[in-house]
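Narrative summary of target 7.
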Amino acid sequence: MIGAKAGSAVLVVGASNLDLAGEVAVVTGLNGRTLVVDPDPGVAAKAEAAGGRAGGLIEFQRAPLAMLPIDADTFDVVVLPGLTASAAGDRPPVVAEAFRVARSGGRLVIVAQEKRAGVFGAFGSSPTIEPADATALLSNVGARAVRHLGSQNGIGYYEGRK
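Modeled conformation, tokenized:
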């Protein structure tokens, strides 16, 4: 549901799901680019290993997620898989920065553990995000055509276009 294609430039903001980054790297191929940005320097080796397991190349750059050292309008797809791990107050600046580096017409994709409904939702140990919060984060930065793409196994996919 990420929507990467061969030759795409894809940025993964945060290293919470390096297997996803590895799969994206395989899809983008030799003509594309997959970059993972995370503030933890220990992630570099893990990102390289995830790319190797999947059969693709993952670049890594160390930086704060709310201050990406990337030129504006650079990436076709920007994936935000770690927003649920962020404190709610940290989410808007991270999404705003992701929006800045997406090219015009590019896509921002939030991949998030969704809050479970009912009694079982109270017992979840994984950080979650409300679907309304995910779409609001995208809308608030100016993304167009914001929508919930779908859910699978408790993971929600949300997108907006720049």
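The chain is about 25% helix and 30% strand.
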